[in-house]
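Please review this one:
***
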Amino acid sequence: MKKGYFITGTDTGVGKTFVSCALLQAFADKGHRVGAMKPIAAGCEQTDDGWQNDDALLLLQHANIELSYQQVNPVALPSPIAPHLAVEHMKESVTIRKLTTHFENIKTSADYFMVEGAGGWQVPLNNNESMAAIPRAFGLDVILVVGIRLGCLNHALLSAAAIEQSGNHLAGWVANIIDPNTLMIEKNILTLKKKIDAPLLGVLPHMDTKEVHAASQQLDVELLLTLSDPV
């Protein structure tokens, strides 16, 4: 693996999967082997192949290397609730150590890996660990997806500060316009550009989440290739 990125968001429902798929497409279009992982997914459906999550299936679809569903999403939880609560219902345990072992087994299969978190930055995994511990354990930089809507300035700035204060590196952020009726969208984005100490990788207009290729063309992954050192 040349590089990997942990994709987090300012909240749930801000487009982490959409951005992750667009990043996969953007790197693939440059001739790279790309893989994806969603270590833990809460909100899965029973299939003939076991519990599966729609977001994880999309990540699997947009990777250009061969991975099994279980490799992409080793922990699939039925209930659409916070992971640590969903795990209680399943009477299972999820630890950073277990998730890291899964990632170590697949990370060399691609040049670039996108690892998508669940919910926001500080969502708990268990009584002692949260999503925030995953990127350091996996050796990944962080990309923050900011859902542009009312309240996004506070959520984005708090998330960016928390990422840096945790000892992780914020490699960049993406502005995803999820509410096109938000007032002063451009000025909100400009404010964040001035205050977040990481490059803006792209602004995604309000669009159908099936338009992954169109979204990928709005992302400047050259910034990542230029600014990031291989791990």
